[in-house]
Write a structure and sequence with these properties.
The chain contains four helices and three strands; from the N terminus they run H-H-H-E-E-H-E. The chain has 91 residues and is of the alpha+beta class. It starts with a helix and ends in an 8-residue tail after the last strand.
Length: 91
């Protein structure tokens, strides 16, 4: 996991920027979603940039999967970063 997180920071600048931007918007729970995706949990985080891929794909049944797949086929992309919205703590 540490190697993948280091790769995001050093070799995937657009992905790292997207993660930071989303964390500024939604809070530090975003970093938890990234770690979960890197550890193999689906539907949390997946990114592709410059031929590098990190995280775990979203399940085919997840609504975002079809949209992303269609967009990649139709338009291509140099950078994709998908982060699930962290669950907000109750109370």
């Amino acid at each position: 996991m540490d190697e993948e997180l280091r790769m995001i920071k050093t070799a995937m600048p657009q992905t790292y920027e997207s993660i930071q931007r989303k964390a500024a918007q939604l809070g530090n729970g975003v970093y938890s979603m990234v770690r979960r995706g890197v550890m193999g949990r689906p539907n949390c985080f997946w990114a592709m940039e410059g031929g590098r891929v990190v995280g775990t794909p979203f399940a085919d049944s997840h609504p975002v999967a079809a949209v992303v797949a269609q967009s990649l086929v139709q338009f291509g992309s140099a950078h994709v970063c998908i982060i699930a919205e962290p669950v907000k703590a109750e109370g």
